[in-house]
User: Fold D-2-hydroxyacid dehydrogenase from Paenibacillus whitsoniae.
Amino acid sequence: MKPHVLVAVNGFTEKHMERIQQVVSGWATLEQINEETSESVYREKIGRSHIVVGWPKAEWLAGSPVRLVQLGSVGYDAFLGSTTQDHASFTLCNASGVMSVAVAEHLIAMMFALTRRISHHIRDMHEHKWRRQFEYEEVFGSTACIVGVGDIGTEIARRLRALGVRTIGVRREIGELHPYMDDMYPISRMNEALAQADHVILILPGNASTEKLFNYNMFASMKNGAYFYNLARGSIVDENVLHAALTSGRLKGAGLDVFEIEPLPQGSPLWELDNVIISPHAGGRSVKEFDRFCQLLLNNLMNYRDGKSFLNQVNYKRES
Assistant:
């Protein structure tokens, strides 16, 4: 029996689906459903599929014939500690690299908007006010600490080095010298790295080991007047402590794309701060996002067909 491929990705165009059909032609069958399909229908489709593409819930895969899950996201938090984890019969691949350029550019945009006071000028523009800010900063010559040096962290570091920024990387294991980092620290010495940085950029995955990692002690380790950016997961940051650091002047500003609760509740005090830029978990969005995702999927479909190793295979058991 030919393997069945189930695609639940609304962002794929007809051209994307035509390319996928060309790759599976002759050795697999293909079906596309709306990613908002009801749970009962989605699960029924999974029960007849061998490859699932999109954002299925982990518990829907238990007991299914699925052998490959290609997520449309970099994060795979929902698969950590799931009931399928210990006895999973499928390979899980994420979308690492698909959103790296977009997130890196989003971070750079936030950095310039904060240091050049662009958000203040936008507010003034709507009120027809011609008003200079007290201080304008340069990123040139500053130091940035990138906490999490994967594909996204690397793309950020590449751009910051070109802007004349000293880059420090933090990750679980240092390994060999990173081409875009001036220095590297293990996560056990993160406080030392944070103390040097004018800009702290959070790009860690969300899991049990990173839950509320950025607490009072971490923010207290930062340089007075530093900027903080979170384009990772809201669960990693204690938002009450972050708010206190921003209102006390400990932090000069923050660029936040992710939050503990999303959408960010209307009553969150973060909305009221004029030294914060908030975006709606949009850092990875790009007109090129689904072109890159489609190409990743095509590569992994061919690898499935040919019995080769998959791209972006994740060891979610090790991460839990």
